[in-house]
UniProtKB/TrEMBL annotation, chain A:
Protein name: Secreted protein
Species of provenance: Sphaerisporangium melleum
Taxonomic lineage of the native organism: Bacteria, Bacillati, Actinomycetota, Actinomycetes, Streptosporangiales
Automatic annotation (TrEMBL), chain B:
Protein name as catalogued: Integral membrane regulatory protein
TM ranges: 383-402, 408-428, 440-460, 466-486, 498-516, 522-539, 551-577, 589-609, 673-693, 705-727, 739-759
Keyword Transmembrane helix tagged: yes
InterPro entries membership: Glycosyltransf_2, Nucleotide-diphossugar_trans
Keywords for this protein: Membrane, Transmembrane, Transmembrane helix
Species in which this protein is naturally found: Sphaerisporangium melleum
Length: 478, 1025
């Protein structure tokens, strides 16, 4: 060893050998460390749901929790600020609860906890045969939130009212923004208002912006949460309905649940951002996508709402409208029924029902029909449809396949008719599904109609992977 | 008309000075200007001095006095007996150890004749032994009585001070004074039997309007026997140093006008304290005692001082301006300070010698002063002519150019460095407090590097950001400087050292550490050369120096270990090997190495125990450990070429030149042993780096910067040792010259390339300026009582990360406090529940953890925003592209009451200055629980004298059973052990500092006094008169 070190070439050789050995070790262990994969998001049952039916007076309120929840739980219906009575307690999962609410009752809160929370859904439906508010009008009871979008006719074309409810324990400051055909409406009277805990208020949009023919309303809170709903009453008894809450601005929007049949079909698109855009419009019907002639695209100036008549384009087929733009947009649609005194129904941009969807209030009978219009703009989809009748045993679920890029209409007709709830559940391997539910009643004067885009059921929540680390004090490294 | 020839009387005072007296007398007797009268005084000598005097001057001319007579008294006694001649009469005072040159008196008289106002004249005084060394050309003082000769230590006389100067005072050794003036002034003050009597006399003379001249044409050689303790002093038993200091202060205070004197008292007090401290640091407690006693001695006898002042009253104030002009010039203090620092750095004690009686007190220091620093030139020239300084400036320029984006702006942070907030006091508070109300709350030990940073910040006037900037951003020039200084004794050729320092400072490790904000690596990188130098001294140094170096190594190693624990492992393994190989060869090496290795263990004990519980962290360093800062698949060639991977690292091949140079160095035979050791260090470092880069700690392996820097140290030293061989090759000419040039080119390629690439690319993150604070001012203002804020960020891969902060950006080090895993998991579940939007009471449960806000720095993920908006227990405060903030609708704060039914109500509380939390509990039914939202354990409560029973709530929080009647409850964290340990730690640090700092030399004066037998100064009998 000593000789080796003392010889200059010997030591050089020794060093080189050692270095080669170290290189070998480092090379062999090179694959050693792989970063731990981020765990996949988990699904958990929703533990608590609270929804507010905006104006149940004189309407029928239906609430249902689909079966499948584990453990204990209760769900109650009570006027906001009041105490629930024994009668207003839901019986159990899978059995719809239904009441006709007397007039002059304020908004009611449907709240569920534990097993009765998972998928709790409520809706209010009113049916008037006369007066200004003649028509069938239904709305999904809304969860309080920070933002709500409504797209539809403006105060110049209909009497539009916002129903704002604060069902929480904290004060809420609400701001209302109107995007009209000419751009955002700026009014100096101030469009923000304060709702105390338990307070509810109705806002006539005509007071805020009298002139727009078409518009989008953004209700957002500066602090707290608000349950918002909007109802449009067309003048001269031409029908009434609630505007469903539209999906938040996105560059691709699907407006599902456009019913077939005669009557007007009008599309409303709003670009709330800072940039003008051209929206590409495609209809998705039972025959697939097609671009409507002369209606391939729609120019929407920044901050304003534009409308497009699709009546002849769709040609009376049940459809979904698929919109793409390079800036986030919000969209809605109006359907007019047929007859001497027609009724209207509204749909709006909706999310894909990944975790399923529940519609509380459906009816079937001699003159009443309920239909699901399901669209699969991407891959082929397969869903299970389960009716939950108010009385009697639930029928076996039906599995429905929707071919890729097709729309399919399914008539809901449980044996025995009557009122029922329906649960739509995409099956494993299914592509994204968008849908709407249409409820109509034929009367001698014309078709009464209401529609509701399918919303995500409140059954499951996606729990993201979460990790405690001090790294958050710094921005992510590039 | 020729003026009458003045009469000169020489008075030689002897006291046990036989060994010098012979030569002195010869000098007196052989004057070119013969003396008119010669008088000898013997103060009771026991060594035959009296006989010598008698032999030279004759029995009639010798006076014998008692042993305790002072110099002044002796002279006074002579003058009493000496009759006046009538004409102009001069007295020439001589010590027995002061031999005048043959022409001294002639020169003095000539100068006196030239200036009628000159009444006191002194010769140029040179050293007795080393006859060329200047001791005095006149002496002055500053207002604190510090003696100033205006000479460098050991300054050779080359005529540079020649001429006749007016000075404040001259020594009594060789002093020529006019007799009438002497008598008018009252002679030397008998209160000052030794030291400073000359100053006092001259001061009085100057104040009286006379002149004191130093005549350099007259030369005397002085042994300064009394001051150097070469003879016992009979006149006083006090140590000469103490006496000198006391007399100095006494003279200054007696002669200054009243106002100046008051100022002088204050000044002397301050100076004395400072000097005492420095002397203690220098491990010279006896001298420190002298200093204190001297000052006390002056002040404790005010009557003596008053008497002296009274005697000097006349003309004191009028003459003062003239005296003042002769004081030490003000710039001298600065110069002295720089000299002192320089001296300290080169291993001398922290106290300089100028305050002593002599300029020549420090013996020639050893080999390490063979530096260019010693050439006597101006300060600027000394500084800028030094290649080390030039190298440092060059590296500084490179650093500034490369770090242009980091030099100014907002908060510095990013990579591994949390944004640097807070000041020194915050850091001290963090380090010294037993319980850290940061994050989830922790009673763990704060990382000790916080104390180091706090100390540095204190030096930087409390500015932590400055301390961190200097350490981190300045690590390249600092490392260059430390490498240059550290190799002083290892590598002789300055150019080789410059190459070494530049190559070391510009390693990829340094650029990587700066880019990723790795403070730990930066500090260790600067310290490593110091470790090498100190370790070399421990192994090879003289025993005392080795032991001192061992303490210093231990302390510095503790500092490095606190920043990056891996360095301890590296040094300890090598230290063990060195102890095995050298322990038997050199005495004390084993023990010294043991000291060096034990000091960090002892100093960091509790924190190290905490670290040992999670051994993977040994591989990590100060700051955050983030996977994106590490190359988890570091290629093997990068490891061999000392490139640690990660952001800010130049391409792997840039260090190829360095590597090639080190391999080429193997072919030279010189320093074979050191080269082998260097390569051994390199191989070991690379092996450890391989382990560090391959073993995952948490999500990713550690960054192998520290072991690679360690490896590089060995490699570069091995290469630089052959530097002078290359120069020899160059000198040889021909083909060898080409080879040498090629080698130099290859070797210099690495630092030049790294510097060039660094400047070209700049430092573009992740470290940057202007890091946005995750805690907004609103949150900070709304959570003054330490309420928590959940900060939530969504990653690109869908992973949500969060942490809990307490209303402020965490201090440096706070993010490294240990968090129990169970608590972390529990909190993660709650946050996940809130973000999932499943409803439920997750947010309410979060409030019971003391959480008040949820902050999401921008851009806010839509899903996260929806979930937070949808939670009824949270309400949004604001939302913008910069981020969103939600607050709890019903916050509980850090202390709340939990009823029997589980209902929680917040309770008001305050945090008194003395620590702890004071809660006012409202009266209520029994069975309630007072909950403190901090991890249970270690807390005690007192309520009106009783201590409520403690229990754990919700599996983690600290609960107490408050009295039903309510009242004030004080909750405190038991941290007495913590406090005791902190004091102990401080004591250990001080002890190690004192043991490590250079101290007194072994003996005051070790040189053996050799009688100079100079041939040219033959004995020449002069007949006695």
């Amino acid at each position: 060893m000593r000789l080796l070190i003392e010889n200059r070439f010997g030591f050089l050789a020794l060093v080189l050998v050692v270095l080669a050995a170290m290189f070998g070790v480092a090379f062999a262990t090179r694959q050693g460390v792989a970063p731990a994969p981020v765990p996949a998001p988990a699904r958990v049952a929703v533990e608590s749901v609270s929804t507010v039916c905006p104006d149940p007076g004189g309407a029928r309120v239906t609430a249902v929790t689909p079966p499948g929840g584990k453990g204990e739980g209760t769900a109650t219906v009570a006027e906001v600020g009041g105490k629930p009575s024994a009668a207003s307690r839901l019986e159990g999962p899978g059995v719809p609860w239904q009441r006709d609410v007397p007039a002059r009752v304020g908004p009611v809160e449907v709240a569920g906890a534990g097993a009765m929370a998972a998928g709790l859904e409520a809706a209010q439906t009113s049916r008037r045969l006369g007066g200004d508010a003649r028509g069938l009008a239904g709305v999904r009871c809304a969860e309080p939130g920070a933002v709500a979008w409504f797209v539809g006719p403006g105060p110049a074309a209909a009497d539009v009212r916002l129903f704002l409810t604060n069902a929480d324990d904290a004060e809420t400051i609400v701001e209302i923004l109107v995007y009209a055909g000419e751009g955002p409406v700026v009014n100096d009277s101030g469009s923000s208002l304060v709702l105390k805990p338990g307070e509810h208020r109705t806002v006539r949009l005509r007071d805020l912006a009298p002139s727009p023919l078409v518009m989008a309303v953004e209700v957002r809170t500066i602090s707290g949460r608000v349950a918002a709903a909007a109802r449009a009453v067309l003048p001269k008894g031409k029908g009434t309905d609630w505007l469903p809450a539209a999906a938040e601005p996105a560059t691709t929007v699907v407006v599902p649940g456009i019913p077939g049949g005669g009557g007007l079909r009008e599309l409303y698109v709003t670009a709330p951002g800072e940039a003008d855009t051209v929206v590409h419009v495609k209809a998705l019907t039972a025959d697939g996508f097609y671009a409507m002639k002369n209606r391939e695209s729609l120019e929407v100036p920044a901050g304003s709402t534009a409308s497009l008549d699709l009546s002849t384009g769709i040609g009376g087929q049940p459809a979904a409208i698929v919109l793409t733009a390079d800036v986030p947009i919000v969209a809605g649609a109006m359907t007019t029924g047929t007859g001497s005194r027609p009724d209207v129904a509204f749909s709006a941009g909706a999310p894909a029902i990944d975790v399923g969807s529940v519609v509380a209030d459906n009816r079937a009978g001699k003159k009443l029909s309920s239909r699901l219009i399901l669209s699969a703009p991407g891959a082929a989809a397969k869903v299970r449809v389960q009716a939950l009748p108010r009385k009697g045993a639930a029928p076996a679920p039906v599995e429905v396949e929707i071919p890729a890029a097709r729309t399919k209409e399914i008539k809901l007709a449980p044996p025995g008719g009557g009122d029922f709830s329906v649960m739509v559940q995409p099956l494993a391997g299914s592509g994204p599904v968008y849908g709407g539910r249409v409820l109509d009643e034929s009367t001698p004067e014309g078709l009464l109609i209401t529609a509701q885009p399918l919303a995500l059921a409140r059954t499951w929540a996606i729990v993201p992977p979460v990790e405690e680390t001090s790294d958050v004090v710094l921005p992510a490294a590039r | 008309m020729q003026p009458p020839r003045p009469s000169v009387t020489a008075i030689v005072v002897s006291h046990d000075g036989a060994r010098w007296l012979k030569e002195t007398l010869q000098g007196v007797l052989r004057q070119s200007r013969p003396l008119d009268r010669l008088v000898g005084v013997d103060n009771g000598s026991r060594d035959g001095s009296a006989a010598l005097l008698t032999e030279a001057f004759g029995a009639n001319s010798v006076l014998t006095m008692p042993r305790s007579t002072g110099f002044g008294e002796a002279v006074a006694a002579v003058l009493e007996r000496l009759p006046h001649t009538g004409g102009e009469e001069w007295i020439w005072l001589l010590h027995d150890d002061c031999a005048p040159d043959r022409h001294a008196l002639e020169a003095l008289l000539w100068a006196a004749a030239g200036d009628r106002e000159a009444v006191i004249l002194g010769p140029k005084i040179r050293d007795w032994l080393d006859r060329r060394t200047l001791l005095e050309v006149g002496v002055t003082v500053d207002r604190s009585g510090r003696r100033d000769t205006a000479l460098e230590p050991r300054e050779y006389d080359q005529g540079q001070h020649d001429g006749v100067h007016e000075v404040l005072s001259v020594s009594t050794a060789g002093m020529l004074v006019r007799r009438d003036v002497w008598e008018r002034l009252g002679g030397l003050d008998p209160e000052l039997p030794l030291f400073r009597d000359d100053l006092d006399l001259c001061w009085r003379a100057t104040a009286a309007g006379h002149k004191v001249l130093c005549v350099t044409a007259a030369v005397a050689w002085h042994a300064e026997a009394a001051a150097r303790r070469r003879r016992r002093m009979a006149v006083s038993d006090t140590h000469p140093r103490r006496l000198d200091r006391r007399n100095a202060m006494f003279v200054v205070m007696a002669n200054l006008p009243f106002r100046s004197m008051l100022w002088s008292v204050v000044r002397n007090l301050f100076v004395s304290l400072l000097r005492t401290l420095l002397l203690l640091l220098a491990k010279q407690p006896a001298n420190a005692l002298d200093e204190v006693v001297a000052f006390g001695g002056v002040l404790s006898s005010p009557r003596r001082l008053l008497k002296a002042r009274k005697a000097r009253k006349q003309g004191r104030k009028q003459g003062y301006p003239k005296v003042k002009a002769l004081f030490t010039p003000p710039g001298m203090a600065l110069r002295r300070l720089t000299d002192m620092v320089q001296g300290y750095l080169s291993g001398a004690g922290p106290i300089d010698s100028a305050g002593r009686h002599h300029a020549v007190i420090s013996e020639p220091s050893g080999e390490d002063d063979g530096d260019e620093l010693l050439t006597d030139a101006g300060l600027m020239q000394r500084v800028f002519g030094n290649p080390g300084v030039l190298l440092c400036l060059g590296l500084l320029a490179v650093t500034i150019a490369a770090e242009r984006s980091l030099l100014y702006g907002g908060l510095l942070g990013g990579g591994a460095l949390v944004p640097v907030v807070g000041g020194a006091s915050d850091l001290w508070q963090f380090y010294t407090s037993g319980y850290h109300a940061a994050g989830l709350g922790s009673g763990g030990w704060a990382p000790p590097y916080v104390a180091v940073l706090a100390a540095l910040s204190t030096i930087f006037l409390g500015k932590t950001w400055l301390a961190v900037s200097v350490l981190l951003l300045g690590c390249v020039p600092l490392a260059g400087l430390s490498a240059y200084i550290a190799t002083r004794s290892m590598i002789s050729h300055p150019l080789a050292r410059v190459w070494l320092a530049a190559s070391y400072a510009l390693l990829p490790v340094a650029t990587g550490a700066v880019a990723a904000g790795r403070l730990g690596t930066a500090v260790v990188f600067v310290l490593l050369p110091a470790y090498a130098a100190l370790a070399a001294r421990v192994i090879t140094g003289e025993r005392r120096r080795a032991r001192r170096a061992a303490w210093a190594l231990g302390l510095l190693l503790a500092v490095g270990t606190a920043f990056a624990p891996l360095v301890y492992v590296l040094v300890a393994v090598l230290g063990g090997l060195a102890a095995v190989s050298f322990g038997g060869v050199r005495r004390g090496v084993g023990a010294s190495l043991g000291i060096a290795m034990a000091v960090p263990i002892v100093l960091l004990a509790p924190w190290l125990a905490q670290l040992a519980a999670d051994p993977g962290r040994i591989l990590l360093e100060a700051g955050l450990h983030r996977p994106e800062l590490v190359d988890s698949r570091l290629p093997p060639e990068a490891l061999l070429l000392l490139s640690p991977g990660g952001p800010g690292v130049p391409p792997v091949w840039v260090t190829g030149g360095l590597f090639a140079a080190a391999l080429a160095a193997l072919l030279f035979r010189r320093h074979q042993m050191v080269v082998v050791v260097g390569w051994g260090v390199t191989v070991f470092g690379v092996l450890v780096a391989t382990v560090a880069a391959r073993v995952p700690v948490g999500d990713a392996p550690a960054w192998p910067g520290v072991p690679l820097a360690f490896a590089a140290t060995g490699l570069i030293v091995a290469a630089a040792l052959t530097g002078h061989r290359v120069i020899e090759l160059h000198r040889a000419g021909g083909l060898r010259r080409v080879g040498a040039a090629l080698m130099v080119l290859v070797a210099c390629a690495s630092p030049v390339l790294v510097a060039g690439l660094w400047i070209k690319d700049g430092v573009d993150g992740p470290l940057r300026r202007g890091v946005p604070s995750v805690i907004t001012d609103f949150v900070a203002a709304a959570s003054r009582q330490g309420e928590g804020t959940i900060v939530l960020r969504s990653g690109a891969d869908g992973l949500l990360t969060f942490t809990v902060l307490r209303g402020r950006t965490p201090l440096i080090g706070e993010t490294e406090l240990p968090v129990p895993d169970a608590l972390r998991r529990r909190l993660s579940d709650l946050v996940a529940g809130v973000i999932s939007g499943r409803g439920g009471d997750d947010a309410v449960a979060l409030a019971s953890y003391g959480v008040r806000f949820v902050a999401v720095p921008g851009p806010v993920d839509a899903k996260v925003r929806r979930s937070l908006d949808a939670d009824p227990a949270l309400t949004r405060v604001n939302l913008s592209p910069n981020g969103g903030l939600w607050r709890m609708v019903a916050p509980l704060g850090r202390v709340y009451l939990q009823g029997k039914d589980g209902g929680r109500t917040p309770v008001p509380y305050t945090e008194p200055a003395g620590g702890g939390i004071a809660v006012t509990v409202p009266p209520g039914e029994p069975g309630r629980t007072l909950v403190l939202a901090e991890p249970a354990g270690g807390w005690t409560a007192t309520a009106g004298g009783s201590s409520p029973a403690a229990r754990t709530i919700d599996g983690w929080a600290q609960g107490f059973e408050p009295p039903a009647a309510g009242g004030r409850v004080t909750i405190e964290y038991g941290a007495s052990w913590h406090r005791i340990w902190l004091w102990a730690q401080l004591a250990i640090v001080v002890l190690v500092l004192v043991l490590a700092s250079p101290g007194a030399r072994g003996a005051e004066i070790t040189e053996e006094y050799a009688e100079p037998v100079a041939a040219e100064r033959e004995l020449q009998e002069v007949p006695a008169r």
